[in-house]
Structure formats: structure tokens, C-alpha cells
Write a structure and sequence with these properties.
Elements lengths: L1 H16 L4 E6 L4 E8 L5 E7 L8 E7 L5 E7 L5 E8 L5 E7 L8 E7 L5 E8 L4 E8 L5 E7 L8 E7 L5 E8 L4 E8 L5 E8 L6 E8 L5 E8 L7 E8 L5 E7 L8 E7 L5 E8 L4 E8 L5 E7 L8 E7 L5 E7 L5 E8 L3 E8 L8 E8 L10 E3 L4 E4 L3 E4 L3 E4 L5 E4 L5 E2 L6 E3 L9 E10 L2 E9 L4 E9 L6 E7 L8 E8 L6 E9 L4 E3 L3 E3 L6 E4 L2 E2 L2 E6 L7 E7 L4 E7 L4 E5 L6 E9 L5 E8 L1
Parallel strand pairs: 45-51
Antiparallel strand pairs: 1-28, 1-35, 2-3, 3-4, 4-5, 5-34, 6-7, 7-8, 8-9, 9-33, 10-11, 11-12, 12-13, 13-32, 14-15, 15-16, 16-17, 17-31, 18-19, 19-20, 20-21, 21-30, 22-23, 23-24, 24-25, 25-29, 26-27, 27-28, 36-37, 37-40, 38-39, 38-41, 41-42, 41-43, 44-46, 46-49, 47-48, 47-50, 50-51
């Protein structure tokens, strides 16, 4: 009896702890994009997006229900004779769904807010448009704790001028309870709304700090009737940079957190940002993550341990273009892991959800699928990983910085629009999409089988010669040669088609003319026919006329500096961080190889300056610790 009980207990534990990660794309030969995602418990997931696959001249809405393993249950599309674009989906208390979109097919103006209520099978129960005679756009919808729904967006039909932030409160049948515009003579937009304590709402977006086009992150708290309780902006306050918030979540302590990007702080470009604010409106902590290019968090979720999962994109690492990005931080904003996902083209995550033992991300991919952009969904374990063969990279290069954004009170005018917002009942029917019309790919099924035995470079006359040897070529498409001047940013300079001899060893070579005697870094991007790829190690070719060689430029614990100039004078080596703080300064005899220990250095970008004591030669190089 004890043995039987033990076996039952083990079966019970295994049954509820097994995670089946997957990576899939869904779509046709034109463009498909996933904007929003719902978890349906053990019944899978619901994806809401936009498609142009049924008419290349317009876009429709698509609603896709999949099982927990990514297989498709059903799919519907909704639209008129012009364009509809998806924004957000929420589960309703009756088990159906509320869909929020924008439309140019229906309504009073050029663009109106579109709300569709469906049952659990995606069949339309009612649909309405809201707006004025000009352009109005939706962004987020939430079911209200006391019943009905609240919609956030922006309007050009009403308010103080330009874009004004826009709220519409409706009952369970889509009838307007109230609507308000919030703004100044400049531009304001709402991007996300969440239920807060005491039947209040917190809303986030952007607002212009001045007459310039630059903007700050905006957070407004309102009561159940839309009256402003608090109204703050976060940023540099000077209007010189762009700081934005794309998502906001109420926290269990009565405060809130919001994510987006800061340009005012960080490493450069747009840096992914998250800010935690307490119940009294004081900043508890704020962090930015990024490099000198662009990162942004479109969404985040909070797990039961108060860890934060951020999802978005980065342009700074890996395969080129945008890569889908996920970061987990703890309750104090300390990063726990950072990972990128995708193939050789562009990917982004637009939303994520957290389950008991897994994380699910949704967005779009241009690396995988049937053509154009396809819906992209990735299910991982709780650490953001999935089986070997899927394209995921642990990204340690994104440095994080603790920052203190400036916070100020914003004086905005609330305009009551109860008698001005136009609402229209429309006849909209969901059309079932044949599953045979949805191309589904699983890029995790065929990992790159090729083995790279050797990869090297040598110089002869005015050419560099890349040589590599492979074995186990089965599904390999091509080898893309990439070149970099700094060892960080690589660009494609050519390719060689794979021969695919199976288990036999295969030799390749590629000739590169030397231009302007520039020293360069090279690597191979190995691409499969199914779109999966991986990188080789990096090789370096330096010009014999160069005075110094630094390797690696992307380092962890040590850097090596070799002086190769014929000048016999001593040299001075000085290394500073991106803020100009000196970390190393020593004089060395010329002609030596010097190794510098960097274990105690923080992550980030550093500048190496090497100069002969006589001042005749100076060498400057950027390096990165990751």
C-alpha cells in the first residue's frame, strides 16, 4: 500500500511539473503580427494580432487559439473593407474575450477605436466604435472590477490640441458611461491602463515636456469617475531627450511599476527601463538596461515572488536587426538573467505571461515562417530557456545602471466628453480561418548539425584568407562571412554555399582584399535551410604596420596588449571607463606583451589609450567588458 501511494504521488508531481517549451511561428506569405496574449490555464493560449494575408491591400484582425503545446485549435478573422489593427485582448468574466483594435473601415472619423466582444469560441456578441471626426486610436482595455470595461488611447478629435490622452468607460454591453480627454496644447498619449486599489485606475504613456517633439513618461492615477488624483511625468525634465512608458502594473504594496525606455539615462540610444514607485508616489528604484543602440520593453509581468519579467527587443547584439529580448529582475531591480531570441532577421516580443512553471512570449518574426512577418510565440521554462536547437542566447553584454529619473507634477486639463464621443453599433462577423491556411513552423525541430572543426585566417600579399573545415553537414544552407573593425558590431561581407557532404570533412576558403590596411575581426554565421543559425568563434587579422594589438575587445577577466611597433621608446597605457574615470595607468617597455587583470572592473565600455613617451604615436581603442 505504501508503494502504491508513493507511485501515485510521483505520478501526480510529474504530471503537474512537466513543462513543454516550444517556439513556433504562424502565418501566411504576407505579414502577420501578434499584439496581445492570454493564458487560458490548462486550455492553452489566445493570440490576438493583425494579418494582411487575406488581402494584401488591407489588414484584418486575427484571433488564434492554440493548445499548451502550440498546436492550433481554431482561428478567426475580423475586418471591413479598409484597415483594422489589433491592440489588446482581455479575458472577460463570462469566459469570453474583449478585443480592442483600431479601424478605418467603420466609425465617425478617419480612424476610430474598435471594441469587439466575443464568446469563448471567438464568435462576435457585439461590436462598437468610439471616437470623433478626426483620428482616434486605442491602446489598452481592462475589465473593471465593478463591471464593464475601460479603454485607454489617444484622440485628435477632442481636447486641448494635437494628441490628447483619451479614456472611454463602457458597461458590459458596450454603452458609454463616460469619456474624457486629458492634455495640454502639446501632445499626450495613453498606452496602458491597470486596475488599482479602491476602484481607482493607473494609466501610463507619454507627454511633451515643451514645444519640442521630445517627450517624458507619463503616469496618471484617476478615480472611478475619471477625476485626476495624481498626475506625474518622469524623465530629464528639460525636453532634450525621449523617455517613454509603454506598460504599467499596480503592485501589491499599493504602488506601481512602469516599463518602457529612457534616452536621458544609460549607455546611449534608447535604453530599456523600469521604474518602481511606492504608494506615496516616491521612486523606490529605477534601472536602465542597454548598450549604445536601442532597447525597449513593451510589456512586463510580476510573478508570485515579486520578480519582474520584461519583454521587448534589442538592436545591440547577436544576429543583426531587432532581436526579441527578455530580462528577469528581482523585487529590488537587480537583474537575474537576460536572454535574446530569434533568427537572422528581425524579432520582437510585444507581450508576455507568467505561468506557474513557464513563461510565454508573443510578437513577430521575420526569420522564420511562410514569408513577410509571422506571429512568433515562445514558451520557455521559468528561467527563460527551452530545448537545444532553439535559437536563444544568454546575453551578458547589456549593462544595467541604477538611475534616479526626475519626477514632476503635470498640469493637464480634463475635458468631459460624455456628450461628444460618438459611438456606433456595427455589424461585424468573425470569419473562421481554415487551419490549412495557417502555416505553422517549429524552428526547434532541426538544430544545426554541422561541426566546425577549424576556422583560421592568414595574410598573403594584399589579401586575407579565411579557411575553415567542417563535418556532419546535413541541412546546412550557407556560411555568411561577417567583418568588424571593433570586434562588437559585425556586418556581412559575403557568403559561401554549403556543399553538404554529410559525415565527410569539407574544406572552405574565402579571399578578402585588404583595404586601407585596416585590422579586422571575422566570424562565420552558419545558416540552416530551416532558418536556424549559429556563430563561429572570432578570428583577428591585424595590419603589420599597426603599432598595437588588443585582444579580445569583448572581454571578461583579462585583456592582452601586444606592442608591435619598431619604436624603442617606452609606452604609457591608460584605460578609462565611459565616464572618464581612470582604472589603469602604467608605463611599459615597448615590444612587450602585457596582460591586464580586469576581474574587479564593472561591466561596460572602456577606452584604451596607448602613447609613446615621445608623443609621436598614439593609439585609441574601445573595448567592452561583459
Amino acid at each position: 500500500m505504501k508503494t502504491l501511494c508513493l507511485l501515485f504521488l510521483l505520478a501526480f508531481i510529474n504530471g503537474f511539473s512537466q513543462v513543454v517549451p516550444f517556439q513556433r511561428s504562424y502565418g501566411g506569405t504576407n505579414d502577420d503580427l501578434a499584439n496581445s496574449l492570454l493564458s487560458l490555464g490548462n486550455n492553452g493560449y489566445l493570440i490576438f494580432g493583425t494579418t494582411s494575408n487575406f488581402n494584401s491591400e488591407r489588414t484584418d484582425l486575427t484571433l488564434l487559439r492554440i493548445n499548451s503545446d502550440g498546436t492550433t485549435q481554431w482561428a478567426n478573422r475580423y475586418g471591413g473593407d479598409q484597415n483594422e489593427t489589433a491592440e489588446h485582448v482581455e479575458l472577460t468574466s463570462d469566459g469570453g474575450f474583449i478585443l480592442l483594435a483600431n479601424t478605418t473601415s467603420f466609425g465617425a472619423g478617419n480612424s476610430d477605436l474598435l471594441v469587439i466582444k466575443t464568446d469563448q469560441n471567438g464568435q462576435v456578441e457585439w461590436s462598437r466604435t468610439f471616437g470623433g471626426l478626426s483620428d482616434d486610436f486605442s491602446a489598452c482595455v481592462k475589465q473593471v472590477q465593478t463591471g464593464g470595461y475601460i479603454i485607454a488611447g489617444r484622440t485628435q478629435s477632442f481636447g486641448q490640441g494635437g494628441d490628447d490622452a483619451y479614456l472611454v468607460r463602457i458597461d458590459a454591453d458596450g454603452n458609454i458611461l463616460w469619456s474624457n480627454a486629458y492634455g495640454t496644447v502639446n501632445n499626450e498619449r495613453f498606452y496602458y491602463i491597470d486596475n488599482a486599489q479602491n476602484n481607482e485606475f493607473i494609466i501610463t504613456g507619454i507627454e511633451n515636456t515643451s514645444s519640442t517633439l521630445n517627450y517624458d513618461a507619463l503616469v496618471i492615477r484617476i478615480d472611478a469617475n475619471g477625476s485626476i488624483i495624481s498626475n506625474n511625468s518622469f524623465g530629464d525634465r528639460g525636453g532634450r531627450f525621449n523617455d517613454a512608458s509603454d506598460c504599467i502594473r499596480a503592485t501589491s504594496d499599493g504602488g506601481y511599476a512602469f516599463s518602457g525606455h529612457y534616452q536621458s539615462y544609460g549607455a546611449g540610444g534608447l535604453d530599456l527601463a523600469i521604474t518602481k514607485v511606492d504608494a506615496l508616489g516616491r521612486i523606490e528604484w529605477a534601472r536602465v538596461f542597454g548598450n549604445n543602440r536601442d532597447e525597449r520593453a513593451w510589456d512586463f509581468q510580476i510573478d508570485k515572488f515579486n520578480n519582474y519579467i520584461l519583454s521587448g527587443y534589442t538592436t545591440g547584439f547577436g544576429n543583426g536587426g531587432n532581436e526579441a529580448l527578455a530580462i528577469r529582475i528581482n523585487r529590488n531591480g537587480i537583474p537575474q538573467w537576460t536572454k535574446t531570441y530569434g533568427g537572422t532577421a528581425n524579432e520582437e516580443f510585444n507581450e508576455c505571461i507568467i505561468n506557474e512553471d513557464s513563461i510565454v512570449f508573443v510578437g513577430y518574426t521575420r526569420s522564420m515562417g511562410a514569408g513577410g512577418s509571422d506571429i512568433y510565440i515562445v514558451k520557455t521554462d521559468s528561467l527563460g530557456t527551452y530545448p537545444n536547437g532553439c535559437q536563444v542566447s544568454q546575453t551578458n553584454l547589456i549593462r544595467n545602471s541604477r538611475i534616479t529619473p526626475q519626477i514632476r507634477t503635470v498640469n493637464q486639463t480634463r475635458t468631459n466628453l460624455n456628450l461628444r464621443t460618438l459611438s456606433s453599433n456595427i455589424s461585424l462577423t468573425g470569419v473562421s480561418i481554415l487551419l490549412s491556411n495557417i502555416n505553422t513552423t517549429n524552428p526547434c525541430q532541426q538544430p544545426t548539425p554541422v561541426t566546425l572543426i577549424d576556422f583560421s585566417i592568414y595574410k598573403e600579399d594584399n589579401n586575407s584568407f579565411l579557411n575553415w573545415q567542417t563535418s556532419n553537414e546535413i541541412n546546412t544552407k550557407e556560411f555568411i562571412i561577417e567583418r568588424s573593425l571593433d570586434g562588437i558590431k559585425f556586418d556581412s561581407i559575403g557568403f559561401t554555399l554549403a556543399i553538404n557532404k554529410g559525415q565527410k570533412n569539407t574544406n572552405y576558403n574565402y579571399i578578402i582584399p585588404i583595404i586601407n590596411n585596416e585590422s579586422s575581426y571575422y566570424r562565420l554565421k552558419i545558416l540552416d535551410f530551416d532558418g536556424y543559425m549559429e556563430y563561429s568563434n572570432i578570428v583577428y587579422m591585424y595590419n603589420e604596420n599597426e603599432n598595437f594589438n588588443i585582444y579580445p575587445t569583448s572581454f571578461t577577466n583579462n585583456i592582452d596588449i601586444k606592442t608591435i611597433t619598431k619604436n624603442i621608446n617606452p609606452i604609457l597605457i591608460q584605460i578609462v571607463n565611459s565616464n572618464g574615470v581612470e582604472l589603469y595607468k602604467e608605463t611599459h617597455s615597448n615590444g612587450n606583451s602585457i596582460q591586464i587583470n580586469t576581474e574587479q572592473w564593472p561591466l561596460g565600455i572602456f577606452i584604451v589609450r596607448i602613447v609613446n613617451i615621445d608623443g609621436k604615436n598614439e593609439f585609441i581603442k574601445k573595448i567592452v567588458k561583459n
